[in-house]
Design a protein that fits this description.
The protein is elongated and about 80 Å long. Helix 1 runs antiparallel to helix 2. Helices cover 70% and strands 0% of the residues. With 345 residues, it is mostly helical. The N and C termini lie close together (9 Å).
Length: 345
């Protein structure tokens, strides 16, 4: 894929395709004001809903599912807004098309990284099932096999995913490109840029929290300053402060709450499997096995639901990209060589 040479290109930069899409001047009509207000108020409400009342919900799979679902809805909203504004792509400069397609590829790469990590965690669940299967009929032989599977699970979970590490680098580039592009003489362009900024901020924030969770490092978090003029600014600042602050203040930062619960149950079981179960500890042993089974099942269900949301976000980005390419081809806006250079491999 061809890459623009200018440093820090704005995220989802549209350049100046609006010069022919509306009358001169950037004064917002009542209709445009209403469209922007509706978008910003909806975004503010979504951000409020993501701020958990219980701090224990932070970095739970259920919260992460809600966060990804919220992000999908916001991206769908911006697609609907573009349609409502009736902004043509026929005037787009090839440079800005290349930038847009390049950034969409970065988002697809981030989705692929998250999906690979969810798949890796799911693979670890197979090892947990081996542990539970071997503990159905306790004996010295099965304890050895169960310990071996549990050791493999610990090693598997503690390993690093290079794709997740790489997506942190991609996010760093996107953070450096959050500045709003200047759009002159286009009221519609001004509305779209204001709305797009909200999309960009929510996208980078949520993806950075996911990257921190999957990498097990609070250093992956970003603190994004937002001007108070946006209707969603206060709610975003509160959400960011709550989530980032709780993660940074947590002692022994753990990847996921459900994973932490499984680890706690496994740590209780391991000494019993190593030393043998004393007759007086049979009930405690059975309870620990039960807790491990319930924890593993909850982890599996959470991973499956989150995987579906991440896949959904991937499809939203991909279909938006494909729609743009289709419009460009039908309008003959850019050369085939430019389009072919931006095909996802």
């Amino acid at each position: 894929m061809s890459r623009p040479q200018e440093p820090h290109q704005p995220f989802f930069h549209f350049g100046n395709p609006f010069r022919k899409s509306s009358a001169k001047g950037s004064h917002l009509s009542r209709k445009l004001h209403s469209q922007l207000n509706t978008f910003e108020e909806t975004l503010a409400e979504r951000l409020r809903k993501l701020n958990p009342k219980d701090k224990n919900d932070i970095l739970s799979l259920s919260w992460m599912k809600s966060a990804m679902e919220s992000l999908c809805n916001t991206h769908n909203d911006i697609k609907a807004l573009i349609t409502d504004l009736e902004l043509p792509v026929s005037d787009w400069d090839e440079k800005w098309i290349d930038v847009y397609l390049d950034i969409s590829v970065n988002l697809l790469d981030i989705c692929i990284a998250f999906s690979s990590e969810l798949s890796r965690l799911n693979q670890g669940n197979l090892l947990l099932q081996c542990v539970l299967h071997n503990l159905e009929s306790p004996s010295s032989k099965v304890f050895i096999r169960a310990r071996s599977s549990l050791d493999s699970w610990r090693q598997h979970i503690s390993s690093k995913n290079p794709r997740v590490e790489n997506c942190c680098t991609i996010l760093g580039k996107l953070v450096a490109s959050l500045d709003l592009p200047k759009v002159k003489n286009s009221a519609k362009g001004k509305v779209l840029m204001c709305a797009m900024y909200g999309v960009k901020v929510q996208t980078v924030f949520i993806c950075s929290v996911f990257a921190a969770a999957f990498s097990g490092s609070a250093s992956k978090l970003f603190d994004l300053p937002v001007a108070e003029k946006y209707k969603w600014a206060h709610d975003f600042t509160c959400l960011q402060s709550s989530i980032n602050g709780e993660i940074r203040n947590s002692s022994g930062f753990t990847v996921l709450k459900e994973l932490e619960a499984v680890g706690t149950s496994a740590n209780k079981l391991y000494p019993m499997m190593q030393d043998g179960v004393d007759p007086v500890e049979v009930e405690a042993f059975q309870n620990s096995v039960s807790d491990l089974g319930k924890g593993a099942e909850k982890l599996l269900q959470g991973l499956d639901l989150l995987t579906k949301e991440v896949d959904g976000f991937f499809q939203i980005v991909l279909t938006g990209r494909d729609a743009l390419l289709g419009n460009l081809r039908s309008n003959g806006t850019v050369s085939d060589s430019v389009l072919e250079g931006n095909v996802v491999q």
